[in-house]
Amino acid sequence: MNIIILGPPGAGKGTQAQRIEAGKGLKQLSTGDMLRAAAAAGSPVGLKAKDIMARGELVPDDIVVGIISERVEDEDCAGGFILDGFPRNVRQAEALDVMLDDKGLQLDAVLELQIDDSILIDRIEKRAAETEGGPRADDNAEALKKRLDVYHAQTAPLIEYYAAKGKLRSVDGMAEMDEVSRQIMEVLNG
Ligand code: ADP
What we know:
Elements: E1 3-6, H1 13-24, E2 27-30, H2 31-41, H3 44-55, H4 61-71, E3 81-84, H5 90-103, E4 109-114, H6 117-130, H7 141-155, H8 157-164, E5 168-172, H9 177-189
Parallel strand pairs: 1-3, 1-4, 2-3, 4-5
Residues 9-10, 31-32, 35, 52-53, 56-59, 64, 85-86, 88, 92, 138, 147 line the site of adenosine-5'-diphosphate (ADP).
């Protein structure tokens, strides 16, 4: 099974994706984590992405499409994967459609975590305060506002995109973490 987990920054995509990975044996592929690792390693892609990420903007589509296209071919993805943070705009979604088609893979479901902006700001401020070794470079008020703006302008249209394809499954991302996980498992097992 191959799925996408979709939702605004701070919605809990990473946490839920890790639980799905553990519960369903699907590999979590987080473009944010991969880009942060590349930035920390100082690779050419990482160096290019670092400042863009810190501002809360999107890194160029060809970079993330290239990363995902290579990564899904790895052996640990053969049992299925969860895309977390990708696609983030319609062009990436279209590139993903072509990529999966070319590789003979299919997309089973798109899980949307529904959540209000007011809650996200509180959550990210809390995460920034609690992160060991200091907050992520983009967990500050300015970058967060940008990330939310980018989400609404570029990523939220994917909800309609996947609804039109009959793939969208929405869950209440404002419920308690365990309840969100329960709803997700229900959707995936149903
Ligand atoms: P969040 O969803 O909490 O904002 P992520 O870890 O998913 O955090 O992403 C952090 C940053 O990484 C984004 O703001 C963006 O700069 C970059 N990024 C991650 N995935 C993509 C993508 N698919 N396309 C472009 N940029 C991306």
